[in-house]
Structures are given as structure tokens and as C-alpha cells.
């Protein structure tokens, strides 16, 4: 610690100071120090000892260390004083290496001009952790991007398919109603021609078991009857809740009672509706287009009716109809 170098270390006159400066290369200043009194000397030594003994507070020390480290990291490793003296660098210089330039051929533009830098690790994670984190993050981002794209395509395709299926289901419903109507008209025709049976009243209960209904429109009938059953059950429930079951009016005749829902309604078809119908399930499992085509074909074969032309042809040839499918009628 060269305290004599600083002017306030030992108050001296200007000439003395110059002398002091000149004497710096000499190990121990001589001349001017002679004037020092015993007390002065004691004080000076005390100050010097204090200065030597002074330990910076921990925070200050750490700040100094951090600053030194930062400073070192900012500068090129090659310009560091210890590197300058490095034997390795000297050897490389002899072989043509100049600091600041890349190793190897001069046209190697992407090459490193600096040695691999030092990065201080401050956490307790393993060395590979940061890279692993980055890799995972990149993968997540890539995956997400792909997923979004796939989802978009998938979504459009699904919407398109659902729309087409909905349209076909609508057509199937219409075709089923046409087929049901034509079949019942033919049946009526036959029964009146056949033996003078009383034709079935409009809106009369269907008397046939559900399973004898043609599979092509059985689904339609079943749905309608299920809706009717539910309507009646709601009606019954409503009646039973709004009227005391014991309440009986002498004036109400049998029909009134039935209308009011007091006489339990016999659902002739409820059992039918609760029964399993594997044949119908199988038919419903077919693709909508296939179901539609089956009904369309049935209408042609049975009634010379083209669902697409909406026309009943006079004979089996169906002359004028462009074909079996919807596309044929475009
Ligand atoms: Zn046609």
C-alpha cells in the first residue's frame, strides 16, 4: 500500500511533494521523512496499520467482486493481461493467429472470433437444465402451432361433414314421409278395392305392431309415436299433480273422465316402443347417404316415383328421369 503516493497521506510542502514523487522508485523514502517527529511517525504508522487492517463490509466486497467480474466479462478474453502472457496464445500467434480474427480460413464468415464465453451459473439446477427448458418450450410452441393448424382443418372438415349430414337427414325425413304416404295410399286403395272393409279413419291409432312397419320409414313412425307417448305422459303427470286422485264428480261421464285423464290411458304401443329393435338400429347405423338412396330406390321400384324429379312416372321405364342419384339431377 503506497500511501506516500497520495498527497493527503502525509501533509508536506510542494517541494517535498516533488521530492517524494521522485523518490517513488526507491523502496523507502529517505530525505523528507527525517523531519518527521516521533509523534508524527507514530500517528502515521497507526493510520497505515488501520488502513491495512480495514476490512470492507461484506456487501461492499461483493459489489466490488461483481463489478470486477462484469468488467472482465465485458472485455475480450484475448485482451486480458494474463492471456497476453499466455504461452498458447504466443504459439497461435506464431502460426498466424491474430486476436479478433477467426481461426482457419479468412473467408469463414460465421466463425467465432472470441473464445467461448463464460456464463456464471447462479441457480442450483443442473448444467443442462436451461437448454432442456428452452428445448421443451420450443417443442411446446411448435406442437401448439401444429395443433392449431390441424384443429382448423379438422374443424372445417367437421363442420362441412355435419352440415352435409344434417342436409341428408332432412332429405331422409322427407323421403320417409313420401314413402309412408304412398304405402298407406296403396294399402287403402287395395283394401277398398279388395273386400269393402271399412277404410281406416284419418288419424286412427296405428294397429300394426311397430316391427311390421317397413324398415325404410320405421324410424319416422317410431319417433312420432315416442313423441306422442311423451306428450301423453306429460299430460297425465300434469293431471295427477293438479287434481286430487280421490276427487270424483258424479256429473262427469266416462268420456269426460277419459278426456281429463282420470281413467288411465292404455298405451297400446308403449311396449313396442320400449322393445329393442336391432333391425332399426342396424338401418340407422348406415351412412345417411346410403339410407337415403335405399328409400329413393324403393320409391322408384314400387311407385315409379323419382324423389329428385318429384314426379310419378307412368311406367317402370321412367323416361325423362336423368338417373338414380341426386348428382344425376344437377
Ligand atoms: Zn328423376
Automatic annotation (TrEMBL):
Lineage summary: Eukaryota, Fungi, Dikarya, Ascomycota, Pezizomycotina
Residue ranges, compositional bias (Basic and acidic residues): 46-73, 120-163, 224-237
Segments of skewed composition (Polar residues): 76-86
Record-level GO cellular component terms: kinetochore
Domain spans labelled G-patch: 84-132
A molecular function GO annotation: nucleic acid binding
Region (Disordered): 1-163, 181-210, 224-261
Source organism superkingdom: Eukaryota
Entry protein name: G-patch domain-containing protein
Amino acid at each position: 500500500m503506497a500511501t506516500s503516493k497520495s498527497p493527503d497521506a502525509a501533509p508536506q510542502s510542494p517541494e517535498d511533494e516533488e521530492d517524494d514523487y521522485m523518490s517513488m522508485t526507491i523502496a523507502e523514502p529517505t530525505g523528507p521523512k527525517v523531519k518527521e517527529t516521533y509523534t508524527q511517525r507514530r500517528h502515521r504508522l497507526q493510520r497505515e496499520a488501520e488502513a491495512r487492517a480495514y476490512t470492507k463490509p461484506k456487501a461492499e466486497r461483493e459489489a466490488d467482486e461483481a463489478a470486477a467480474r462484469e468488467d472482465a466479462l465485458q472485455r475480450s478474453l484475448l485482451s486480458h493481461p494474463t492471456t497476453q502472457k499466455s504461452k498458447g496464445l504466443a504459439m497461435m500467434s506464431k502460426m498466424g493467429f491474430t486476436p479478433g480474427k477467426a481461426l482457419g480460413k479468412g473467408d469463414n464468415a460465421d466463425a467465432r472470433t472470441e473464445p467461448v464465453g463464460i456464463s456464471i451459473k447462479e441457480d442450483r439446477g443442473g448444467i443442462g437444465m436451461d437448454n432442456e427448458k428452452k428445448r421443451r418450450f420450443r417443442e411446446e410452441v411448435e406442437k401448439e402451432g401444429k395443433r392449431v393448424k390441424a384443429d382448423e382443418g379438422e374443424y372445417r372438415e367437421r363442420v362441412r361433414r355435419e352440415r352435409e349430414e344434417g342436409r341428408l337427414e332432412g332429405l331422409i325425413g322427407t323421403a320417409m314421409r313420401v314413402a309412408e304416404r304412398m304405402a298407406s295410399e296403396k294399402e287403402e286403395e287395395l283394401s277398398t278395392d279388395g273386400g269393402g272393409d271399412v277404410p281406416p279413419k284419418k288419424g286412427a291409432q296405428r294397429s300394426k305392431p311397430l316391427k311390421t312397419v317397413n324398415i325404410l320409414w320405421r324410424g319416422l313412425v317410431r319417433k312420432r309415436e315416442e313423441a306422442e307417448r311423451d306428450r301423453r305422459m306429460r299430460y297425465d303427470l300434469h293431471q295427477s299433480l293438479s287434481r286430487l286422485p280421490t276427487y270424483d264428480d258424479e256429473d262427469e261421464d266416462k268420456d269426460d273422465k277419459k278426456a281429463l285423464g282420470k281413467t288411465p290411458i292404455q298405451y297400446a304401443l308403449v311396449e313396442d316402443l320400449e322393445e329393442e329393435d336391432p333391425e332399426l338400429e342396424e338401418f340407422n347405423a348406415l351412412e345417411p347417404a346410403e339410407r337415403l338412396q335405399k328409400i329413393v330406390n324403393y320409391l322408384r321400384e314400387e311407385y315409379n316415383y323419382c324423389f329428385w324429379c318429384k314426379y310419378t312416372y307412368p311406367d317402370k321405364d321412367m323416361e325423362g328421369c336423368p338417373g338414380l342419384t341426386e348428382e344425376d339431377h344437377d
